[in-house]
Design brief:
single chain, 151 residues, alpha+beta, six-stranded antiparallel sheet, 18% helix, 28% strand, binds adenosine-5'-diphosphate, binds riboflavin, binds magnesium ion
Length: 151
């Protein structure tokens, strides 16, 4: 199931579906299609936890949803990352690096928006816990997140 983990991804933060995830208290930074298309073909869709870095900032905990969002029946697969950090504003156009560390669950359909929000809250709590494990923590300081000088 998790033979591809840890998986490192990088790309620009683009506009998503604008469904107001932010209003739900859970903004998600979306990747462009080219990043989605670069994923291993048989990576399981679902909810992952891991680490995220905006440009050359600090490396924060994150949860990422990879898939078609059955609740919204998207036609195109998406990769969206909620970073567990309070930012002072939007960062569209910035570079986002993420490391997928572990898998939480498959994507589900929900009968109400409240149930979806409740599930996301639980994902965040599970991610918080799992990322405290020493094995997960070593990835926070992986060289992938180092600020390498431009050549
Ligand atoms: P969109 O549909 O354009 O993705 P969202 O409501 O999902 O809109 O909001 C995502 C945007 O919010 C991100 O692209 C980013 O600029 C901003 N943002 C602010 N704080 C966060 C955060 N903690 N995690 C993810 N994105 C954040
Ligand atoms: N969408 C779904 O349809 N089913 C899910 O199980 C699901 N899980 C999610 C888990 C997390 C941690 C996040 C950040 C998003 C998830 N979404 C899911 C995507 C959600 O529909 C999307 O972020 C919406 O734009 C929220 O309004
Ligand atoms: Mg989004």
């Amino acid at each position: 199931m998790s033979k591809f983990l840890p998986l490192f991804l990088e790309g620009e933060v683009v506009k998503g579906f604008g469904r107001g995830s932010k209003d739900l208290g859970c903004p998600t930074a979306n990747y462009p299609l080219e990043v989605v298309q670069s994923l291993p073909k048989d990576l399981d869709p679902g909810v992952y936890y891991g680490w995220a870095q905006v440009d050359t900032g600090s490396v924060h905990k994150m949860v990422a949803n990879i898939g078609w969002c059955p609740f919204y029946q998207n036609k195109q697969m998406s990769v969206e990352t909620h970073i567990m950090h309070k930012f002072s504003g939007d960062f569209y156009g910035s570079n986002l690096k993420i490391c997928l560390v572990g898998y939480l669950r498959g994507e589900k359909n929900f009968s109400s928006l409240d149930d979806l929000i409740e599930a996301i809250k639980q994902d965040i709590a599970n991610a918080e816990q799992n990322l405290e494990q020493p094995q997960a923590k070593t990835l926070q300081t992986n060289n992938f997140f180092a600020n390498k000088p431009a050549i």
